[in-house]
Predict the structure.
Amino acid sequence: MNKHASQERRRRAIYGYLLLTPAAVLLSLFAFYPSVATLWSSTFSRGTRRNPTEFVSGGNYSDLFNDPTFWLVVKNNLFYAGITIPLSMFIALSMALWANSKISAKGFVRTAYFTPTVLPMIAAANLWLFFYTPGLGVLDQIGALFGLPSVNWLGQPETALWAIIIVTVWKESGFFMIFYLAALQTIPADLKEAADLEGASRWTYTRRIVLPLLMPTTLFIGVNAMINSVKLIDHLFILTKGGPSDSTKLILYYIWEMAFAYFDAPHAAAMTIMVLLVLGIIAAVQFFYMDKRTHYQ
Amino acid sequence: MSRLSRHLDSFGAILLAIVWISPLLFAFWAAFHSTSDAVNFNLTSSLTLKNFQVAWDGAPWLRYFMNTFLLVTIVLIGQFIITTLAGFAFAQVSFPGKDFIFILVLLQLFILPEVLIVENYAMVSRLGLFDSLLGVGMPYMASAFGIFLMRQAFKSIPIELDEAARIEGCGWFGVLLKVYVPLAKPTYLAYALVSVSTHWNNFLWPLIVTNSDKTRPLTVGLSIFGAPENGVDISVISAATLMSVAPLLIAFLVFQRQFVQAFLRTGIK
């Protein structure tokens, strides 16, 4: 009897491993091995015909730390994250509060907010190009109505990153809105009634009741917005290609450029490792602080 | 007072909504007018389909559409098979080291495929899959996120159904196919919508792995078509952009509720 049970257990284990094999193979090929390989190749110099690759330990990293472009890119990305994360979350929350209140044309409003989410970033960039083109673009034409001079929004370092940021915020706010909307709909109506009975103003109700109840959602969206501030760079390929004078170059774009335009894989690998570290920290923060009862991911 | 504030709310919400879809509206406007009429906002000017014709003739769009369609299909089929098997293993089969392996899988949630472009490119080339749709799709098939989703779905299915099927003489695989998969249909639907819209829109990785029109998906094709070097004007770019987003946009407008539910159910893209 006992023997039969252990045989059954072994059969099950084999069965479990077989089921996992396809996933394990693919995850090893495209996630685990590449991560390790990236770490490995980030410690070797770039091979040329005259100088074969050699082990340089942290050499590529110190090259980057001495490279002003690298620091500019880091600064750009921090700025990009620092504006897009809070701004898109704030707009998402406002959208959700509106879309959840008793307003007219609610269906249209919700659709309008959410639509950018289903468009590819490349298409979004093309749409915005029509806004930003100097002279002919929508923004300049609106400006001209008020007698403002033409501005080359994408062509000057002072405004280019902002132009990029606006496209990102436009793209992701509606996506974040639906999570706020779903959370708002779980808030019981009697809380609002009680607040009204107590004579609380709408602002007090929002600040003291709604916002605290939305906190887990806010954390969830925050983590996603952080990941997006690393990931969302497709529009750079259309709008600025990182220019002018590197003012809109973000880390992932720089990695791409380093590897596929300058063919400098080792430095790209070193940067990749740093990005993975940052993502790891975000993961850890999420793991320790996020309320697990809310949205699973 | 409350009526006034309600009107103000409506006004603000609708104003923001109009601002939000204005890029799309302007693209519509530009796509159906000649370039000079479009940029002058000549409201009385006549409509034209010429931009669509110029755009259509300017690139092998039919090929791009086919490639994107095939790509999202390949990815989806791969994801369904792999995440179903692995999700089932994690949900209902006990084997040593299960928790540890599950944590390893979850790690992949934060190793974004986008970040590993350099080594994944090397891997795809090594496998001889460079410039093939399978090469574009493969890194996304064993999605840790999908495995997690399927595990959750299978865990919520009552064990009694499983046992009943076994008494009826179903084997392990039969139980999976006849009990678990049909009952997890809403999860599959949600996952499919999210997966299709993600991969329909994906750009960076296909840009790297494709090198010819026979594999390029729409996003990459559109970016090449609209590149400033090609000197295409704004009306034609608008027409091309609308053309390439039309299938997904129309699907979204028709099945809006399902889309929103899908994104909510799956949490992240």
